[in-house]
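# nightly structure sweep
# worker-07 picked up a monomer target from the shared queue
# config: single-sequence mode, recycle default, output format = structure tokens
# input follows
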Amino acid sequence: MRYYSELTKKFYDEAKECEKAEELFKEEKAKKEAEALQKSNERKEAAKKVEEAYEKVVVAQKEYKKVLSDFCKEHGSFHMTLNKDGILDWIDSFWESWF
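# output follows
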């Protein structure tokens, strides 16, 4: 008599062989689920760090805008030299101040 496992979708010659294969299948499935859960939790933690860093940027940017605005009110204008990396940051802050 042959035995068919619904879990593994295979035929086996003996019942013990089928049971052993199903147990192995369940263990592997549980291991994969645990790994997926761990990866998901790690991703959530990493995403939380990104969100916290972004919040710091938002707070710093608000402070920068306030200090710059106060300076401009008192002294008329503010000029600074930007390197080529800083120009992109300046463009971003320019657009954010208008929209």
